[in-house]
């Protein structure tokens, strides 16, 4: 077999390896449910195909070297080796895959009820900052990879009896068949409880019933698994419910409804503005854009909620009409007392930051006509905040730094 035959075996085997790897990648994408989001499935397929082609290239060289006297024999052995290795790779991927367990072809959630140890209580939370968490962890140690951790839901119930024990419920998706499965419950930075849940790698239907109470981490707990459909029905996601309710209310709005009725749609939760990005058309923005001057009276409202929502609406226009410049400035002046009231209220503090930041940006969107008013507003906010640094990483300190930066530049 000459150089032409040798080159033919090498190139042919590389091509066979690429085609076989493409088939393997399609199987693995389906089996492992690899998402197509951001091209993940495509990149995975490309990686597997290049690996297969590279492996075929090497096998082709070896086969052509050892069986140099017969082209077809060399090509046949090389093709057989490539196909065998592809099948073995697929079998190994299935055998060693740590796939999530199922019952009735449904994903499973682990539920745990806990009687907390006496003297253990949750950390105080605010609307803007969670401090109590639970998660399922498949490895323990100082440097656990994020892939070994699955976050869950945590619900707390204060003591109802004289024993003073808090009750906790945890729910978390079982992402792997791997054991051990350790459920962590954290109350703030210092208090952490760890429970090793003695579930088999593949739970059975009988594990959908509550276990008996067992001792662990100084308290008592019991557990069970739930089908995904049942779990989601019994424990709906508040964020999903909130979005569904918002969309339903938005669909029921008449186009000519008063602007005040559109304002609640400009924030997801109190003080948290709805993002209006991505080139989409938003009904609430279009409604205000059709009658922007109606915002003037709403911006001058003494009602903090109404004024805040009006500020978010003005910001969402992205081109602030000149007629709204003075109402926005008046709005800032009328509600400077927010800064004082937010000193000891973390939820109000974040809302205050969002309020004044978006107000300043709405004035910035008025271009030259809004410059003087914006500068005056920033000066008033800076005076209300005071010169002394606030708590590190707090919302008011972030507002102070933003105002100081803007005043220094302009």
Helices, strands, pairings?
Layout: H1 3-31, H2 40-66, H3 71-96, E1 102-103, E2 106-115, E3 132-137, E4 149-151, E5 153-157, E6 167-173, E7 181-187, E8 191-197, E9 214-216, E10 219-227, H4 228-234, H5 238-251, H6 259-262, E11 267-269, E12 272-273, H7 283-290, H8 295-299, H9 304-316, H10 325-334, H11 337-341, H12 346-364, H13 368-385, H14 395-409
Antiparallel strand pairs: 1-2, 2-6, 2-10, 3-4, 3-7, 5-6, 7-8, 9-10, 11-12
Helix pairs in contact: 1-2, 1-3, 2-3, 9-12, 10-12, 10-13, 12-13, 12-14, 13-14
Label this structure with key terms.
410 residues; Immunoglobulin-like; Leucine-rich Repeat Variant; six-stranded antiparallel beta sheet; four-stranded antiparallel beta sheet; extended
Structure commentary:
- By secondary structure, the chain is an alpha+beta fold.
- It has three domains: 3-96, no CATH class; 102-234, Immunoglobulin-like (Sandwich), CATH 2.60.40; 238-409, Alpha Horseshoe (Leucine-rich Repeat Variant).
- The protein has helices at residues 3-31, 40-66, 71-96, 228-234, 238-251, 259-262, 283-290, 295-299, 304-316, 325-334, 337-341, 346-364, 368-385, 395-409; strands at 102-103, 106-115, 132-137, 149-151, 153-157, 167-173, 181-187, 191-197, 214-216, 219-227, 267-269, 272-273.
- The strands form three sheets. Strands 1, 2, 5, 6, 9 and 10 form a six-stranded antiparallel beta sheet that branches.
- A hairpin with a 2-residue loop joins β11 (267-269) and β12 (272-273).
- The model has no long low-confidence stretch (mean pLDDT 88).
